[in-house]
C-alpha cells in the first residue's frame, strides 16, 4: 500500500516512559487532610526527553511549534461526611480507596444536604465515586423501608457503552452491600423479560436520555413506584449535552421533574462534567434547577508535556494551486508507529471511523517493516464494535498485549482506559474540554505524561498550533445549549401533554416560550385545550415527534443492494451530504459506494467496494432575514443577530485521495433544495468602510467570501460546535440589508446557540479570524486559512489580502465585548413556524462556504 509517510526504516529510538492523569489545579476543600505524601517519582524517562527523541527524525524538530510544560501536583485527601453509611465507606475501602479526594468529599456533602451539584474536574479525578458514595448510602437507607425500596436513583449516560461500564463498576463496588443495591441497565438492548423486574425491583437504574424520552417517561404509570422513591438523578458527562442534542435533553429532564412532582418526589441532580467554564451555569440551564459547583480538583497529577505539532508542506497542489500539508492522519500514524516500536502503551484519537481504521492500517504496515510480530500489537477502536469486542481490546491494552490503539474521539466517554504512556490527538477535537479529556488518558502513578496535538490542514488547527495561548492560557469553553429553541420545545410540550395534561402551573418549568408556542400547537391540532389544561389529541405516540439526537424527518435506511440487508440509518438532515449517489459510506470497518438515493422511500442502496478515495459533498446556499432581534453599531457597519431562512442545495461532490487529500475530481449531483429556519449572526460594511479598506468591486466578493470561510473555521474556538454544525453565506449586496453582508448560521432548525455565542464574542472571534488569515504563510489562500472543504462555489472567488483589510476595518469600529453582552437581549419572536415551517423558494447571488 502506498501511503504518504516517512521512508521505510526511519524510526526514532525511544525509551519507554510512564505517565500520569491530567487535571487542572484548583483550591482545596474545607475538610482537607494534608497527611498524604506525593507519589514517588518513577524510573522512566522524563516526558520532555521522550518528545526530544520523537522529534529526532529527519525534519521532525521543525514540526513542533510549541511545547507546554504543566508541573506536577500532589493530591489532597479529605474524609467522607459522617452521614455516609459506614457499610459504604467500608465497601470503598475494600476497593482500595482509603480516603476520598477533597472534591469527592465536598460533592458528597452537597448531595446529602439536598443540593443539586455538578462536579467539574479533570479526567481520572474520581468523579464517579463523588456521586456514587452518597447515592449508595441513600439506597442503603431506603432498603430498610417495608417494601425494600424506599429510595431509588436514576443514572443517565450519553452512550450505552458508558452506562454498561458504570453498571459493572457499581456492581463491583456495591457487592459487599448485598441486595440492598440492585443496579441494572435499562436501554434498547435490555431483554423484555428483564424490563419488568427492573421496573419493580431495581434501585439504581442506568439508562440514556433517548430511553428516558421514548421509553420511561411515556410509560410512567408502570414506573410509578420507582419515580415515587426517586432521590437522585445522576447526569454523567454532562458537558456532552450541548447544541440541539443538549437542548432536547434539557427538556427531557424538565419532563422528568414534572412527573416526579406528580408522584411526590423531588430528586437531587448530581452532574459530572469534564473541566468546563461556568459548569454551574450550564448545569442550571440543563436541569432548570439551581446547581452548586465543585471544580476544586484535588486529585494528583504528574508532569504533563504537551506538544503542538504541524505536519510539513508537501509538493502536492490543492485547489487553485494551493499548497497542501501532509495529512494529520499520516503524521499521527507515524507517531503511533514510533511509540509502539519502543513498547509504549499509547492511544491516537482521530475524529472519524475511517481515520481510526486508516491510522491503524498504516501503523501496522510500518511496524511489519520493522518486526512482523509488532503489527498485531496495534488496533483500531471505534463505534460499531460489539461490546465484547471492545472489552477484549481494553483488556489487551491493559495487559500490555496490545500497545497502541487508534480510536474515534466519540469513544473518549465510554473508554475504560487510563494510565497510558502517551496520547496522540490527530486534529483538534473541537473543544478545549475534549482536548484535555483526551490528553488526560495518558498518565500513571504520579509520573510524567506526554500528549501531542497534530494539526489538520484547516484554519482553526493552524491557528492553534501557532497561538498556543489560545489553548493553554484560556479556560475551557462554556457549554452552549438553548432549551427555549421552539423547534426543540414544541415536540416536548406535546410529549409532556401526552404524559399528563399540561396545565398553566406547568408552563414556568418549560420556559417563557411556551405561551407563544401553545396557540400554534392548538392551531396545528396537536394539542387541544379543555378547561384548564392542554391535552394530546393524536393516536400516535407524542414522543415519536422528535429524535433528540437528530433533526427530525424520516431516517434514511442504508440497504445493501445485493442482499437487501439493512446496514443502518442516516438522519434525514444528513442524507443529502452523506449518502448521495456516488458517496463513500463506512459501516463497521467495511466500505460501500452508494448506488442510488431514493428520497421518497428514504432508502439508500449501497454495494461493497474498496475505493482509494473519500467523498465530500458541496452545496450552495441562499439566505433571507426573517427578523432582527439585536443590532449593534460597529462604526458605520452593523453586527446583527436574529432569525433567518436558509435554502440549501447539494450540487456536487469531490473525490479526495485517502491519505494525501489530493482532489481527484468533482461530480455533479441533482438533488432538490431544502429550506431551514434557524438563527444567525451577520455583519455589514458600508461603502466608506470598503474605501478605507481599499476594497474595490473586483475583489469585494472574494474578500467577503474569504472572511466568511475563515470565520466559520474559527468559531469552534469560541462556541462548543464543529465547523460542520454551522454554515455561512457572503453577499456583495444582500437584498435585505442592501449592503455587503456576511452571515454565519446554525445548521439546525430553530438554532443551536452557536450563532448567539458568536454574536456575544464577535470582537474576539473576528479578531482571531483576521489573525488566522494574516499569519498564514501562503500567498493567495489555502486550506489552512481561507479555503473550505465544503464550499459549494469551488473556493472561488477568494481574496486573502482583501479579507485581512476588510476585517481590520470592520474591527476598528467594534465596541468592547462587555457592551455587546449588555446590548444582547433574549430571544423574541423566534417561535414563528415551530409547529411546521413553510418550505419556500430561495434567493440567489451569494457565495457560500
TrEMBL record:
Residues 24-48, 811-849 are annotated as: Disordered. GO terms for molecular function: helicase activity. Transmembrane segments: none annotated. SUPFAM superfamilies: P-loop containing nucleoside triphosphate hydrolases (SSF52540). Gene3D superfamilies: P-loop containing nucleotide triphosphate hydrolases. Residues 331-487 form the Helicase C-terminal domain. The keyword Cell division does not apply. Keywords: ATP-binding, Helicase, Hydrolase, Nucleotide-binding. This is DEAD/DEAH box helicase. The lineage of its organism: Bacteria, Bacillati, Actinomycetota, Actinomycetes, Kitasatosporales.
